[in-house]
Every structure is written in structure tokens, then in C-alpha cells.
Design brief:
Helix content is 36%, strand content 22%. The chain is of the alpha+beta class and 178 residues long.
Length: 178
């Protein structure tokens, strides 16, 4: 992770997350879950998330401090792009505490991620936004981001994922073409 540059507005600083930030990372992750109308992580899931960040390095994490207090996180990972043989950064979660919104913390996190992408010679910074999250949509457009309209994201989860995994047709490679 690159430098610890001071960001817009006094009292705002972005830095790599440290293990001592773990409890606050979990709190902010749970705040995001409530906002997105999802079930909050339990203790085991929270510990697994911290393990993915600090031990296994499946995620990287930046935190934003506002007046010395951690008030936001960005969880991301580097992924390869096969066509260009260069990486891209995928922003899994961006959350700024309600108390710190409007003070430049989210913009500071995004700017730090952009610097990280440029430093890694990444093709792009990519993320998903819920279609009903109007504030986030406005925020990202204000930063110059655009919605991809030519690609549609799909998910396979739950019972459908398990059914496909159990499918013998898939093992034989005899499923129909899309």
C-alpha cells in the first residue's frame, strides 16, 4: 500500500488498516449490512473477515480517520484482466459512518484507491452499487465514474448454486449452451 497522504479537509487521513482497527472494521461492515438490508455478520463471520484481511490477504483494507477516529473503510482486492494481462482493483465495500458523511471521507478513500490503482498500473477501479442507493450513485457520478451498461452482472447463490454444483450434467459437460 502506498503513502499516507493527508486528504481534503483538515483532520482527514487515509491509511492501510491495521489489526488494531479490526473491531472498528467489523462495526462499519455491520453498519453497511444494516444499510443494505442484509443480515449483520455474526462473531465467526467477523473474525473470518479480519482473517481474510490481515492473515490471508484475500482483501486489502484502507481506513479513513476523521479527527483521529476511524470513520470509514474500503475493502478491495486486485484481480487479473485476461485480455490486457494487467490487474484491476475491485472495490468490494466502501462505507463511511453516518456521522462522518459529507466531510470528504468517502472522497478521500476513493482518491486513495485511485492512487493505488495507478501505482499498480491497473486498468480500472471497479465496483457495484445498489440501484436504490441514490446518494451513492450521485457520489460516484460526481467523482467521474460511469455506470457500465454493456455488461450485466449475474449471481448464482443459495439453492441454485448448490443445485448446479450437484448437477451430473455439468460434470459430463452436457448442459445446453446459453
Amino acid at each position: 500500500m502506498r503513502g499516507r497522504r493527508s486528504e481534503r479537509g483538515s483532520g482527514i487521513r487515509v491509511r492501510p488498516a491495521a489489526p488494531s482497527d479490526g473491531p472498528r472494521v467489523i462495526e462499519l461492515d455491520r453498519e453497511l449490512a444494516r444499510f443494505e438490508r442484509l443480515r449483520e455478520s455474526d462473531a465467526a463471520e467477523g473474525e473470518r473477515l479480519l482473517g481474510w484481511i490481515f492473515r490471508l490477504r484475500k482483501f486489502e483494507a484502507l481506513v479513513v480517520e476523521v479527527d483521529g477516529s476511524v470513520e470509514g473503510i474500503a475493502l478491495f482486492y486486485e484481480a487479473p484482466n485476461s485480455f490486457r494481462a494487467r490487474p484491476f482493483l475491485y472495490l468490494e465495500d466502501l462505507v463511511v459512518s453516518e456521522a462522518a458523511r459529507g466531510r470528504g471521507a468517502g472522497e478521500a478513500l476513493m482518491a486513495a484507491l485511485a492512487r493505488e490503482a495507478v501505482a499498480r498500473n491497473a486498468l480500472r477501479l471497479e465496483w457495484a452499487v445498489l440501484d436504490w442507493n441514490r446518494e451513492a450513485l450521485r457520489f460516484y457520478r460526481r467523482l467521474g465514474a460511469r455506470a457500465q451498461t454493456e455488461w450485466h452482472r449475474y449471481v448464482l447463490e443459495g439453492a441454485e448454486l448448490e443445485a448446479l454444483a450437484r448437477s451430473e450434467d455439468v460434470e459430463r459437460g452436457s448442459w445446453p449452451d446459453p
